[in-house]
Amino acid sequence: MTLSDSTNVGMLEVIANYAHEIGHAWGLLHEHQNPFFWAPPYSTQRMQSQWTFNCQNLKDYAQVAARLSPEDLTEACQLRTKAAAEQFSASEYLPVLGGGRGKGTGPPDMTSIMLYPSGAGAVGAAAPGDDQRAAILLNQDGSRLPINLQPSARDIQGILKLYNTDGDTTNPTFLNEPSNPKSSKFKNLFKKKRCL
Known about the structure:
Oligomer: single chain
Mean pLDDT: 87
Distance between the termini: 29 Å
Shape: globular
Number of strands: 4
């Protein structure tokens, strides 16, 4: 997790980049790393990938290519574990195989704050409103993945599911507000830790 106030990385917007990283802190995973959206050689979950992955457009590709054999480079561009072992940024894009993802097998959430836009981490210049970065991930129809500036409804539902809430957000209250039914439990927890 990297928190940056730069407007030339990620979503090209500070608050959206912070929201993405806070999503990780709350337990959300990258939407594009769900193995269900990838086909061989990246994953065996489906016959056709949702994405086209352009590994050669990653900022650190040339540096990694200079130190790996062609076979190891191919593997690092196809397997997240190999990319991570090589400290290659492809590990932030490739599917996370095994374990529960929690996102299901439905269509990708194209409005998720946890979905990298096509140019995130790519070579090329970028500024708010002027994304000239090369595309790392593209939809199968060749279109770019969007820059999402706020959490989607499915992101919010994912957080509610992670924290076993009933999902009633009609009159949200903070845990420290007396009108919240969990307020006393919350305050007692902090008293025990001597945080208040």
